[in-house]
Design goal:
Layout: H1 13-22, H2 31-44, E1 48-52, H3 55-65, E2 73-77, H4 82-89, E3 94-98, H5 112-115, E4 120-123, H6 135-145, E5 148-152, E6 160-161, E7 164-165, E8 172-176, E9 190-194, H7 200-207, H8 213-217, H9 237-248, H10 250-273, E10 286-287, E11 293-296, H11 300-312, H12 328-333, E12 334-336, H13 343-347, E13 350-353, H14 361-375
Parallel strand pairs: 2-3, 2-4, 3-12, 4-5, 5-8
Antiparallel strand pairs: 1-9, 6-7, 6-10, 8-9, 11-13
Helix pairs in contact: 1-9, 2-9, 3-4, 3-7, 10-14
Enzyme class: transferase
GO molecular function, one term: dTDP-4-amino-4,6-dideoxygalactose transaminase activity
Organism: Rouxiella silvae
């Protein structure tokens, strides 16, 4: 069986985890946590990075940090994971879903401004497949209307937009280190990127259950107390040790994934030229991270037929999100602004192929050969 995904392993994870176990500091903000946070701050030129248990936790942190409350509206695409919306719904916000672009599967930046009302507080662009949204347009709209921008860059670690790392462009960015992502913290994990310096102090307090514990350990206060609302948003140092091994090999992992992505593109391009499928589109000014390789078909029936065909050959391929606005909770906690021209239609055509760091060339060739045989 060729799996759809296998968590990346570089070989030094166990050594670092054993080191963390011997340090006497397994909870959050240990030595490996600091190393990881400093790595991101240095390499992505971000004022402050805080590791969290998941990207879900990072998004929830962002919603608290921005004081999202009942009656507020938050704009985002419907084609995204449930956590993108849930984080703001938990604060009482109403979600305003906007249609996507069929080329990148990202939010259509030209439709955002019409969806803004006097209740709008934030825009949440989602960088699908590690391909950047049009952030210049989105940030200009946010500045014009006095809004916050929270980048859901769960899939965007190591991707850039016009030379800037995804997650570092909006006021806040959120990363995921789930086992399905390019880099993992041993199964789960995330990070909150604070790009507006005035938000850093409160972000640390919210992450530490509403206390100023971080300031206490830096010697800035003589005791720590409860200052604000918050929750337990610290990643365990044991997980950070696993993540550190991955970050040391970050470029190696990125290069291998890009090589696999390019192999797919080159091998399947003749099928696109024959009109049998559609390959991914890369946005101008964006350097992607090969988070996923997807193909699209004319109909969902053809896609589903290929899924079954590949499964018979013991190759797991999967479709992706069911649009949130069509779900029970989506109808209850939000609404779709304007016409759903592309979101539902394009989501029904998309199929993801196996792509992971430890995938062998032989595995990939088996996927390509089987896929070609389906069309033959």
């Amino acid at each position: 069986m060729i799996p759809f995904n296998s968590p990346p392993i570089v070989g030094t994870e166990l050594e670092y985890m054993q080191s963390a176990m011997g340090s006497g500091k397994l909870c959050g903000d240990g030595g490996f946590t600091r190393r990881c946070q400093q790595w991101f701050e240095k390499n992505f030129r971000c004022p402050k990075v805080l590791l969290t248990p998941s990207c879900t936790a990072s998004l929830e942190m962002a919603a608290i940090l921005l004081d999202i409350k009942a009656g507020d509206e938050v704009i985002m695409p419907s084609y995204t994971f449930v956590s993108t919306a849930n984080a703001f719904v938990l604060r009482g916000a109403r979600i305003v879903f906007v249609d996507i672009r069929p080329d990148t599967m990202n939010i259509d930046e030209t439709l955002i401004e019409a969806a803004i009302t006097d209740k709008t507080r934030a825009i949440v662009p989602v960088h699908y497949a590690g391909v950047a949204c049009e952030m210049d347009v989105i940030m200009a709209l946010a500045e014009k209307h006095g809004l916050f921008v929270v980048e859901d860059a769960a899939q965007g670690v190591m991707s850039t937009y016009k030379g800037r790392a995804l997650g570092t462009i909006g006021h806040i960015g959120c990363f995921s280190f789930h086992e399905t992502k390019n880099y993992t913290a041993g199964g789960e994990g995330g990070a909150t990127l604070i790009n507006s310096p005035e938000l850093i102090e409160r972000a640390e307090i919210i992450r530490e259950k509403g206390t100023n514990r971080s300031q206490f350990f830096r010697g800035q206060v003589d005791k720590y107390t409860w200052h604000d609302i918050g929750s337990s948003y610290l990643m365990a140092d044991l997980q950070a040790a696993y993540l550190w091994a991955q970050l040391e090999a970050a470029q190696e992992i990125n290069n291998r994934r890009l090589a696999l992505w390019n192999n797919y593109y080159k091998a399947l391009k003749p099928l696109q030229e024959k009109g049998q499928l559609v390959l991914p589109t890369l946005a101008p000014g964006c350097v992607h991270n090969a988070h996923m390789f997807y193909i699209k078909f004319e109909t969902s029936e053809k896609r589903d037929a290929l899924i079954a065909y590949m499964k018979e050959a013991e190759i797991l391929t999967v479709f992706h999100y069911i649009p949130l606005h069509s779900s029970t909770a989506g109808e209850k906690y939000g609404y779709f602004f304007g016409e759903d021209v592309h979101t539902t239609e394009e989501s029904g055509k998309l199929l993801r192929l196996p792509l992971f760091y430890n995938m062998s060339n032989a595995m990939q060739q088996a996927v390509i050969s089987t896929l070609k045989s389906f069309f033959a």
